[in-house]
Design a protein that fits this description.
With 205 residues, the protein is an alpha/beta fold. It contains nine helices and seven strands, in the order H-H-H-E-E-E-H-E-H-E-H-E-H-H-E-H. The strands form two sheets. A five-stranded parallel beta sheet has the order 1-4-5-6-7. A two-stranded antiparallel ribbon has the order 2-3. A hairpin with a 2-residue loop joins strand 2 and strand 3. The longest helix has 25 residues. The N and C termini lie far apart (38 Å). The mean pLDDT is 95.
């Protein structure tokens, strides 16, 4: 939608009580991707284990809209999409940056299996809290910050962050170690090498 309307207009439309253009575009997008997914999974004939979808519902300090607005306008399409995957017995991973704690219960209820990227240094997304509350219902993917040691720290700090992620988010399984987003070209090569070595050391499964 942001490519059609621009990010400011898209968010403004989302925030209105009534926005016919938002509703019309959203309906087209949801219907397109539902049909797209159905055709892919049908053609794959059981050879796909996990599908990955993404829409950033969060930002650094909270959701991009109120939980009520998200539940009313975005949750229905989110749920319908996931249910198509479930029909084919496929796991679903969703990518959303930012702070999304208020809507995690609804995402689980909709059938989500894996949440990515568990972005550190965002409001109310503490790893221990997330694991304690939803670790038995949700697989976590990500967790290693691009705003911390990986970008600004030394090799010891990078290794320690990976170790902490594996100990907290990986407690009793249910964790896929990964950086919280794409690695950037301006990061130190030695930090990235240490990152991958630490993956094997602390989270070999």
């Amino acid at each position: 939608m942001m490519y059609l309307r621009g990010i400011e207009k898209a968010l403004s439309d989302l925030g209105r009580k009534q926005s016919p253009i938002f509703d019309a575009i959203l309906e087209k997008i949801v219907n397109f991707y539902k049909e797209y997914l159905e055709r892919i999974l049908r053609a794959a004939n059981g050879k796909i284990d996990v599908i990955v979808t993404g829409d950033d519902f969060g930002q650094q300090n909270g959701l991009i809209c109120s939980p009520k607005t998200w539940r009313e306008k975005l949750l229905p399409g989110f749920r319908e999409y996931i249910q198509i995957a479930k029909k084919y017995k496929v796991y679903v991973m969703h990518h959303t940056c930012g702070s999304v704690t208020p809507i995690i219960p609804e995402m689980i209820e909709a059938g989500l299996d894996i949440l990515n990227p568990i972005q550190p240094f965002t409001y109310d997304m503490d790893h221990s809290m997330l694991k304690d509350k939803w670790g038995d219902k949700l697989i976590f993917h990500g967790g290693v910050s691009l705003q911390g040691p990986l970008r600004f720290g030394n090799l010891f700090e990078v290794e320690n962050e990976v170790k902490a992620c594996c100990e907290i988010l990986g407690r009793n399984g249910g964790y896929i170690i990964c950086s919280a987003h794409n690695l950037n070209a301006d990061m130190k090569t030695e930090n990235m090498v240490t990152l991958f070595k630490s993956y094997q050391k602390y989270c070999p499964y």
